[in-house]
TrEMBL record:
Protein name: DUF72 domain-containing protein
Phylogenetic classification of the source organism: Bacteria, Pseudomonadati, Bacteroidota, Sphingobacteriia, Sphingobacteriales
Gene3D superfamilies, A to Z: Protein of unknown function UPF0759
InterPro entries: DUF72, UPF0759_sf
Organism of provenance: Sphingobacterium griseoflavum
SUPFAM superfamilies: TM1631-like (SSF117396)
Domain of life from the UniProt record: Bacteria
One protein family per Pfam: DUF72
PANTHER family linked: UNCHARACTERIZED PROTEIN YECE (PTHR30348), UPF0759 PROTEIN YECE (PTHR30348:SF9)
Length: 298
């Protein structure tokens, strides 16, 4: 994942912004007695990207991946909307408790730009509901050049999206964040339509760290810089998540990317170990590699 990549990560201030007061109010209002749930994973499971993660002789990468992690940010569906049969095949390779977080196809978000996409959305939803209990939450990621001037188009899309199907939304253009009135308008729409506001932590786009939740679920896409600072950044997130959990956070969806994805499982193992200690989760700490020299991050 190259989005937000910088040449000199050591020059970036990676301090997490303060949590928006509205976020704390929302979490307090939605506090429940049910156990906190955390899902942590990578963006892909294929061996080419996660080279060294799979033991020699692994016959099925998804089966092994799902034994190590409890979720996957399913970017494969961005390029091609899956068939019902493909979804069932993926589901049957995982055990109870594993969740898929499929990305809305680019034919809807990037090529269609949310116009005349009803049939494509219906096909995507009809296929992915076959994940059944393995469906976590889909997410819509708009192109960086999708601007607030097309707010009405986004509003119509979200209001018309199939009810009851969980969806998170990621906008990337800076204009959504530099004007407070625009950002508040977006937040109001997401709250009204019960859509989760995606938070992106990447070196070159710090404005995407808006810290404004719109549901009692936190959907975080963390992009490492293949730099030692990645450890400290993840530690800061553990502290923040603990604060949100105390305030009333119900679920965490946290996905770890790298500009060089081969290191993603290593960062994830570090993050999961710290999260377990801080908030009492009992997530499996994934294997860091197959002994081929990949035992440390840098």
């Amino acid at each position: 994942m190259k989005f937000g990549q910088v040449e000199n990560p050591e020059e970036i201030d990676f301090t997490l912004p303060a949590t928006a007061t509205e976020t704390i109010s929302l979490l307090n209002k939605n506090r429940k007695q049910e156990p906190f749930e955390a899902y942590v994973g990578c963006a892909k499971w294929n061996k080419a990207d996660l080279k060294g993660f799979y033991p020699r002789g692994t016959k099925d990468e998804l089966v092994y991946y799902a034994q190590q992690f409890n979720s996957i940010e399913l970017n494969a569906t961005f390029y091609n909307s899956p068939s019902k049969e493909q979804v069932i095949t993926w589901r049957e390779k995982t055990d109870e408790g594993f969740k898929f977080f499929p990305k809305i196809p680019q034919s809807v978000s990037h090529f269609g730009r949310l116009l005349n996409t009803d049939e494509k959305v219906a096909a995507f939803v009809d296929a992915t509901v076959n994940f059944e209990d393995r469906l976590g939450m889909a997410f819509l990621q708009m192109h960086d050049n999708y601007k607030p001037k097309d707010f009405d188009r986004l509003q119509a899309f979200l209001e018309g999206f199939p009810k009851g199907y969980p969806l998170a939304v990621e906008v990337r253009n800076g204009e959504w964040f530099t004007d407070d009135a625009i950002q508040q308008k977006l937040v109001a729409l997401l709250e009204k339509t019960d859509k989760t506001n995606v938070i992106v932590d990447t070196a070159g786009r710090r404005e995407l760290l808006h810290m404004r939740l719109t549901t009692p679920f936190a959907f975080v896409r963390f992009v490492g810089a293949n730099h030692p600072s990645d450890y400290d950044r993840l530690s800061s997130w553990v502290v923040r998540i603990k604060e949100w959990k105390v305030a009333g956070l119900q679920k965490l969806y946290f996905f770890i990317h790298q500009n060089v994805e081969v290191e993603s499982p290593l960062l994830a193992a570090h993050f999961i170990a710290e999260l377990n200690k801080a908030v009492g989760t009992e997530l499996n700490i994934p294997n860091k590699g197959n002994g081929s020299g990949q035992s440390t991050l840098f």
